[in-house]
Amino acid sequence: MYFTMVHAPEVASQVNSWVKEITTGLIKEILPAGSVDSTTRLVLGNALYFKGAWTEKFDASKTKDEKFHLLDGSSVQTPFMSSTKKQYISSSDSLKVLKLPYQQGGDKRQFSMYILLPKARDGLWNLANKLSTEPEFMEKHMPMRKVPVRQFKLPKFKISFGFEASDMLKGLGLHLPFSTEADLSEMVDSPTARSLYVSSVFHKSFVEVNEEGTEAAAATFAMAQQS
């Protein structure tokens, strides 16, 4: 939405209410207090919500607390779901990939969750680098068929995360939109929308995985000012 400073105080409340509605309350606030002020000219963003049931649900009576290893070498007790049914799994020298399909919805689209597990306990950062620099990496490692398993375990979890993403995006090489030399005015049909550039980006996400399936939501909003 494009607005003048007269409307600025109302914008954060309107955006937060919209995001809360779209995400069914999983994300209650995307724009913190003070993020929209008299210098803000454009708020651009999106929000999405997903809820899917596994095609093969886990037996809750078999969920047991076990050790989950953290990146710093420590561990915590976490509830693990388990199954002995055949699973979509692929394995290489450095990585295991599990595919968990969701039941089809009314529009017949098929979604799946992919869980990647590095075989090295400290291999997460190397895996993240491959995913971001090798476009074909995920496709090469997708499981194509079910294989027998003695038992596999998956942590049951609920997490939420939010941050101001400008520095991260700049670190990935996205500099021009944040520069006063940027001109985003053609995105707005207004004669007063001149020399717009991105001043901040806010992101929040939520995901819960349990025996029944997955519920998740995400929202991202960018603020623009005039140079």
What topology does this entry show?
Blueprint: H1 8-22, E1 40-53, E2 64-69, E3 75-83, E4 87-91, E5 95-101, E6 112-118, H2 124-133, H3 137-141, E7 146-147, E8 152-155, E9 157-164, H4 166-171, E10 196-209, E11 213-226
Antiparallel strand pairs: 1-11, 2-3, 3-8, 4-5, 4-7, 5-6, 9-10, 10-11
For the largest beta-sheet, the strand count, sense and barrel status come to: 4 strands, antiparallel
Give the overall shape, derived from the CA principal axes.
elongated
The average pLDDT score comes to 90
Physical arrangement of strands within the biggest beta sheet: 1-11-10-9
CATH topology of the largest domain: Antithrombin, Chain I, domain 2
Our estimate of the beta-strand percent is: 35-45%
Radius of gyration (CA) equals 22 Å
Looking at the overall shape, the CATH architecture of the largest domain is: 2-Layer Sandwich
**What is the CATH superfamily of the largest domain?**
Antithrombin, subunit I, domain 2
Number of helices: 4
Overall helicity: 10-25%
The SSE string, one letter per element, is HEEEEEEHHEEEHEE
Organism: Hordeum vulgare subsp. vulgare
InterPro entries: Serpin_dom, Serpin_fam, Serpin_sf, Serpin_sf_1, Serpin_sf_2
Family: Belongs to the serpin family.
GO molecular function, one term: serine-type endopeptidase inhibitor activity
